[in-house]
Amino acid sequence: MKYIIALLGFMTFTIQAQVVFKAGPSRAFTMAKDALCFKNATQVIEDYGPLGLGTLGKKEGICQGIAGVTAAFVENAVFSPSNKKLSADENADLIERAIQLHSGGCKKRFTVPGYKNMQEFCSANLSEIVFQATMYNADIATYEIGTYNLTSFLFYQDNLLTSHGARVLLHNNILSLKERLEEGRAPLMLVYKHVTMVTGLRYKIENGKLSYIAIDHYDSNHPEKLSVHYILYGTDGLPKTGKNRMLWDITPDRTMVFCSLI
Fold first, then answer.
1. Which of 72, 92, 149, 255 is the most buried (most CB within 10 A)?
2. What does the pLDDT read at residue 35?
3. SS3 sequence, the chain?
């Protein structure tokens, strides 16, 4: 019964077939402006990442760190190119503060002076962004994945879902992503061995029933364009049996973070 009630949050009893939610408080995400300026699992991560973690990041990637830093700026940053740029140390403090706000789910806008968008800011502060993204990658791996989702992750892995319980869990994670988007966040989505940043959600209703959900997301392995992840739905209002794999909402929202102090 719970998933049937939750499904009503997706359904619109109008002639409109698709509904779209976009991440961020006031603007749509674009790769050319809002993505980071480097690709996942490349030499730059070893060059600028912390000792040991940088080498590991070049080999295995820092996908959740890239997604997390990007989301931190999408959610709260206001770029002001007409203002005087900060020093390198001040920009480092700004990046750290953005991550702290993101980890706590804080809605607290901050200004990035001297730059018109994230791509420009990233290019000018590449070493610091790579360093802090690598650190945040390890942090998210410890908390959001290791502490809260590891058991489920190890159980479902990359398998096609067939049980009723698995289908309900997948549906609930999708509902969670939708709620984050409605709150103005840019959610982090975990699939097997990879994390991306959700930028929007679309779904189609046919004959009064949910047909599929399309999750638009920024994938740092493929930064040339936005990627799309489809979830097919059955007539019972749940993801189809044997057609979908598990995904998890791992958006940081840590209660130990006091937003007023950041």
1. 72
2. 97
3. CHHHHHHCCCCCCCCCCEEEEECCCCCCCCHHHHCCCCCCCCHHHHHHCCCCHHHHHHHHCCHHHHHHHHHHHHHHEEEECCCCCCCHHHHHHHHHHHHHHHHCCCCCCEEEECCCCHHHHHHHCHHHHHHHHHHHHHHHHHHHHHHCCHHHHHHHCCCECCCHHHHHHHHHHHHHHHHHHHCCCCCEEEECCEEEEEEEEEEEEECCEEEEEEEEEECCCCCCCCEEEEEEECCCCCECCCCCECCEECCCCCCCCCHHHC
